[in-house]
Amino acid sequence: MAADKRSTRLKTAYSLLDAYGSLSPDAILDHLDEKCTHQALPESLGMPPRSKEEFRGHAQGITSIFTTFAMVPQNVYEDEDNNAVVIHAIMDGQLNKPDIGQWKNECIMLLRFTPDGSKIIQIREFVDSAKAMEMRNKVKPKNFDSHGGSFLSTLGWVASTTVPVALAGAAVLFFTGRKDLLRLR
């Protein structure tokens, strides 16, 4: 088997995506630096940036409503100069509420890393506002809206069915300002 030639930051990003499937807040937060912040976008959702500990509380609420979950990357863009990764992912989970069942959507995650690429220091996640509100109205996980406990990468799990793949490219331009990064890795 060939050795994995991906950068440390890409390995960290893919490990984070895999950790979502564990439904373990600790496994997810293990990839985050102690000073990591997370924010769900667009800002019109009214979900403020959260610290790692606030993110933990939200993660516990969200993970408790799923029986299975997978974050499947569709496009991944790496910005070596800015130590960043942009991910367009499909989220596919089974909710533990029988009347809802499968929850499928997508998100765009903008990740920044520690200098060595081994930990994530910032997550900005574009989510589908309509799906986020649907989750809020149908399931309302504990700490879904609160500032004091938040894991909006899991909101990303429940967030988006209409974000076009082109948004991943737009996110690269928005996040980095560099057109030369619009290449798949």
From TrEMBL:
Q: Does the record bear Lipid metabolism in its keywords?
A: no
User: Which InterPro entries does UniProt cross-reference here?
Assistant: Fungal_Meroterpenoid_Isomerase, NTF2-like_dom_sf
Q: Which residues cross the membrane?
A: 155-175
Q: Matching SUPFAM superfamilies, A to Z?
A: NTF2-like
Q: Which UniProt keywords apply?
A: Membrane, Transmembrane, Transmembrane helix
Tell me the domain of life: Eukaryota
Please identify the protein, giving its name as recorded. Answer: SnoaL-like domain-containing protein
Tell me which species this is from. Answer: Aureobasidium subglaciale (strain EXF-2481) (Aureobasidium pullulans var. subglaciale)
